[in-house]
Amino acid sequence: MTKPPSSQSGADLDPFEDFLCFSVYSTGLAFNRIYKPLLDQLGLTYLQYLAILALARQDGQTVGELGEKLFLESNTLTPLLKRLEAAGLVERRRSTQDERVVRVSLTAQGRRTAEEARCVPAELLESTGLSAEGLGELNEALKKLRGQLRPG
Amino acid sequence: MTKPPSSQSGADLDPFEDFLCFSVYSTGLAFNRIYKPLLDQLGLTYLQYLAILALARQDGQTVGELGEKLFLESNTLTPLLKRLEAAGLVERRRSTQDERVVRVSLTAQGRRTAEEARCVPAELLESTGLSAEGLGELNEALKKLRGQLRPG
DNA sequence: AAAGATTAGATCGTGTACGATTTAAATGCG
DNA sequence: CGCATTTAAATCGTACACGATCTAATCTTT
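Structure tokens for the assembled complex are given below, as produced in the milestone run.
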């Protein structure tokens, strides 16, 4: 492996300065890298962390409901949820009313992990040194953009 | 596969409203989904498209230089570049001065593909219906954020 | 020049993403 | 009721990401 991608404040090193899609993409990678060491301590990946948080807010969701919140589908979620189940953090049960549906709920250990995970973002945002207002505005702008980015 | 994640304008469907990292993450997924049908016509993935663009701006870059621009390392780039080579779009050659270094250059076909790829973002941004100023500001904010998100 | 350190890529294993397909269960409709 | 349609998950194949490790080439230092 080569050296980690280094920060470059020089002018012409980034040929995608004006590509919004690239800014979103690379900022996502950067977030992932920041989160990873914190989440490693919890034994979670970034997506697993999001899934656990979503279940902490509303337990017993179906795979489809979880997918709506995470903007993902069963082909991504099913393997992820099986890993969380293997790790003892969630339970997957077919609904008795509708056997097509799988409901996912946190185990006791899953709830403990969710509790620990809750304080991760605070540590992290503090380390960015950016203002709360600025981050809030950025968040709103991204949500609006995401809403516009719909196939069709 | 379930139905595609649907747009939801309701209030409480997204439990991560206030998570900037999630907004960045999910907007990245949304961009990917928008780009995919356009790039499928070129036979490129999103990352392959970025690599081709980077090479079109500066041909004959090393794997490491390319990685600095894309914020990626050889463990991601090497397989990607091999696929582009197999597709006949790039050539990979070890430098004769320093045999550790691999230089990547576009083939004639690669340059044609790069030319076609150049007009993709315009089509796309038009479809978002967002103002150029707003997108520019968002871009600046993201670049600043990305710059702050550094391990350590 | 020889030995150790550094560097550039490549390789490997795990975990997302996602299109396409499959399976099984529920629903609709004549 | 019976059968086509729809739906929810699961499965499969391909392509990223990335930590860890490996290999080979260059540099350092004596």
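The CA atoms of residues 92 and 104 of chain A lie 5 Å apart. The first strand of chain A starts at residue 61 and ends at 62. Further analysis is deferred to the final report.
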